[in-house]
Design goal:
- This is Transcriptional regulator WhiB.
- The chain is an alpha+beta fold.
- Helices cover 32% and strands 11% of the residues.
- It contains 4 helices and 3 strands; from the N terminus they run ααααβββ.
- Strands 1-2-3 form a 3-stranded antiparallel β-sheet.
- The longest helix is centred in the middle third of the chain and has 11 residues.
- The chain is globular and about 50 Å long.
C-alpha cells in the first residue's frame, strides 16, 4: 500500500490533529522521497517527519503491516525492520576517506 493510499483511509482509532491532511509533510513533498535510494534523501524524509502529528501512528501502522521499505513515522524500515540509517550503494571503502 502506498503512503498516499494509507493516508486516504480513515484511521482505526481517531487521531487528534489540528492540521488538515494537506499539511502533512508526506502530502506537501514528493512521495518518492520516502522511498528514496540516496541516504541523504532518506535522512531528509526522516527529518521532515519530525513535527508530523501522525508520526507515531504512521510508524505503528507500518510495523503492524510489515512494510518492506521506506520512511514511516520518521524511521527507516528495510525488510520490515527499523534500521538507523541507509548505507550507500556499493562496497564500503577499505581505507577511511
Amino acid at each position: 500500500m502506498t503512503l498516499t493510499a494509507m493516508l486516504d483511509q480513515a484511521p482505526a482509532e481517531p487521531v487528534s490533529t489540528d492540521c488538515p491532511a494537506t499539511d502533512l509533510p508526506c502530502r506537501r513533498h514528493d512521495a518518492e522521497l520516502w522511498f528514496a535510494e540516496s541516504p541523504s534523501d532518506v535522512e531528509r524524509a526522516k527529518a521532515l517527519c519530525g513535527d508530523c502529528p501522525l508520526r507515531a501512528a504512521c510508524l505503528e501502522g507500518a510495523v503492524e503491516r510489515g512494510e518492506p521499505w521506506g520512511v514511516w513515522g520518521g524511521e527507516l524500515l528495510i525488510a520490515g525492520v527499523v534500521v538507523p540509517r541507509k548505507r550507500p550503494r556499493g562496497r564500503p571503502r577499505k581505507v577511511a576517506a
